[in-house]
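Q: Protein A?
A:
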Amino acid sequence: MIQAAGRLIQQVVTTASLAFSICLFSPWLLLALIVCVVPAFLGETHFAFLGYSLSFVQTPARREMEYLRVLGGSKESAKELKLFGIGPYLVERFTNLAMRLHG
């Protein structure tokens, strides 16, 4: 955490010094830089939040798929799957979850 705080301080000092240098050279260039960077930042932030929310919503189904994959593919559970005949049920359940998640 201390290392991350130090990195943040270093980036702030670097950004401030570069902004000051650009402002001395050409204030219009600094304004143009800010105007160009802000929309890109907002777009990246928007799509990052969309990706996170999608991942958050899909987490329970992905965990269930992983459980079914391990259960159906491990040699420890092979006897029970064959004895009780639940292999086709697990395959169908996995397929339904995969179709729901991946289209």
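Q: Protein B?
A:
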Amino acid sequence: MSDIRDPGLADAGALRIDWADRQMPVLAAIRERFAAEQPLAGWRISACLHVTAETANLMRTLAAGGADVVLCSSNPLSTQDDVAASLSVHHKIPVFAIKGEDRDSYYRHIGQALDHHPHVTMDDGADLVSELHTTRTDLPPEVVGGTEETTTGVIRLRAMAADGALKFPVIGVNEALTKHLFDNRYGTGQSAIDGILRATNILLAGKPVAVGGYGWVGRGIASRAAGMGAIVTVVEVDPIRALEAAMDGFRVANAAVAAATCQVFITATGNLNVWGGAHFPLMADGSILANAGHFNDEFELDALKEQSTGQREVRPFTTEYRMTDGRRINVLADGRLVNLGAAEGHPALVMDMSFANQALGLEWLRQHVAELSPQVYSIPDDIDRNVARLKLVTMGIAIDGLTPEQEAYANSWQSGT
């Protein structure tokens, strides 16, 4: 039994899922093998992910592999209602997600996904695991493991493991090179800019843009914004990343200087209050705040509300806050993930690799679960490299391998000048 907006949207969702599937050949090949081998047979899986066309193809793959799957959303604004309808109606996969749901509905849907009594969790931000360890403490004994999709979730899970609180092993899919080097950098780099442009229709050329954080997500956003002619300032707390940003040609400044000199602010840190109450008075009229991190904590929105005299929606997914001095500050997608709140998320081509890692990571978990302890594990290197090889093949790219002589040279200490 699903909780979705409208089952009548299913046919439109099917078209969207099929379109994405054409751009996901690696996952399609895994789905074909899974259907034949049934590596996930007998597992109940509860997934808390962005309900998009790409995710739908991952769910189809897990179901093809024998898993009993249910899905809820990992963000109140990221659900594509037509995709949720198609998964429920055409593929008989229960979905608990409605775009724009309030906080109570969001957590009710997580609870409904957990009512599935999962053997395995799939998370994007660790909300499912957090609920299991706080309000649904009866369930963890049934859970043998999980996967985590994003940086923020891996950070939370590692903190749980360090405190001795984590009760089962979790595969940190985000740690796969074919995930964070590509999904985080190229996927978010493009889709975050896409969300900002859809919500505002601004011209980036010549615009002073601040990027908070220079991890893989921040690198991608800064690169894409600069490529469209923006004047990019990077704000960092890590001296090595700040130095890297400077040597990549970006202006580097602290948050206060950026607040006073930039007009578009994009956060990508996975932390909170990158720009907050002390910074909003410094921002120019018409400033735009967009978050590309996971949760809507990267801007101190409560402080912004306190400093404003009112707010109104001036465009879809664009809320204008009017400050006491008449300035206007615009927040996109309620401060949530702008690429999914105001646009369609990552292109399917890059999600093909991320979700291939999810599927193969679950297969690996099934094979090795008895050997694992309650901590965060990275995707094995051979799986990561296999995903890269498969992706290259689908792109029509051939590469060389080392010759036996080169292998010997690379592993020898005797050879030299």
